[in-house]
Amino acid sequence: MKNKMYIAIAAAAGCFLLSGGIASAAPAVAYWEFTGAWGTGGNTYAIKTNWFTVTNSAQVVTIAGWQDVTSLGNANIDYTLVRYGFLGNTPVGMKNFNTNYPKSGVWYNYTFTNARKGEDHRIELIPHSSAGMIGAGNAYDGY
Fold first, then answer.
1. DSSP characters for 17-78?
2. What is the pTM of this model?
């Protein structure tokens, strides 16, 4: 299949992201990547990372990455922090990036301040652009 979407988990203690002037000393806990035609036609599914446990005392989760389009227009994606619940999951924060952040340029960076230490969370991505989008990013346990 030509267009693939990948989801992986990264759990490297002390992992550093350094691209486009953004660096994080917090450990990476999730990774996402989307390629090709994500956001077009029938490719409008949500991307969901694996669950990860927040361990930092500040109770924050930071996301950083890049997003771009394969044609004209802007990438437009909602990034939602979701908390796991036995009776149902709860969205606890959302950030929309409605512009392009090229892989070789300055990347987006946002910190969700309403995570709970000791509880499981994940990031969910929802596309809002009909342009084919490409990109990747990480979630960090802390700043």
1. EEETTEEE-SPEEEEEEEEEEETSTT--PPEEPPPEE---TT--EEEEEEEEESSSS---EE
2. 0.84
